[in-house]
Amino acid sequence: MKTYRIDIDGCDDTNSFLIDLRDEEFKLLEKIKVLSNEHSLYACQPTLDIYEASEFDKEQLEEDEDE
């Protein structure tokens, strides 16, 4: 199991969070990422991005949750 950062990006805002995923869960979300980008017809439609979380991501997002 690894920790990933997920970003859901729209025109004027981004939601970001960390999640622990098994390999098969990551593969499913990776497919959803590709589909969300393929079906986004213009820049303001939300898309999903997922990547392995860095230590910086972990520190930053945990600080945001504490506020």
Describe the structure.
The protein is α+β, with helices and mostly antiparallel strands and 67 residues long. The chain has one domain (2-54). It has helices spanning 23-38, 55-66; strands at 2-9, 14-21, 47-52. Strands 2-1-3 form a 3-stranded antiparallel β-sheet, with helices on both faces. The longest helix has 16 residues, at 23-38. The N and C termini lie far apart (27 Å).
List its traits.
single chain, 67 residues, alpha+beta, 2 helices, flat
Which bin fits the share of residues in helices?
Answer: 40-55%
The description of the largest β-sheet is: 3 strands, antiparallel
Strand percentage = 25-35%
Strand segment tally:
3
Provide a count of the helices.
2
Spatial strand order of the main sheet: 2-1-3
- Uncertain segments are none
Query: N-to-C SSE series?
Result: EEHEH
Q: How would the global form be characterised?
A: flat
Mean pLDDT: 89
* Rg: 13 Å
Calculate the terminal CA-CA distance, rounded to whole Å: 27 Å
| Whole-number tally of structural domains | 1
Secondary structural class: alpha+beta
Question: What secondary-structure arrangement, pairings included, does this model have?
Answer:
Blueprint: E1 2-9, E2 14-21, H1 23-38, E3 47-52, H2 55-66
Antiparallel strand pairs: 1-2, 1-3
Give a brief description.
This protein is an alpha+beta fold and 67 residues long. The chain is built from two helices and three strands.
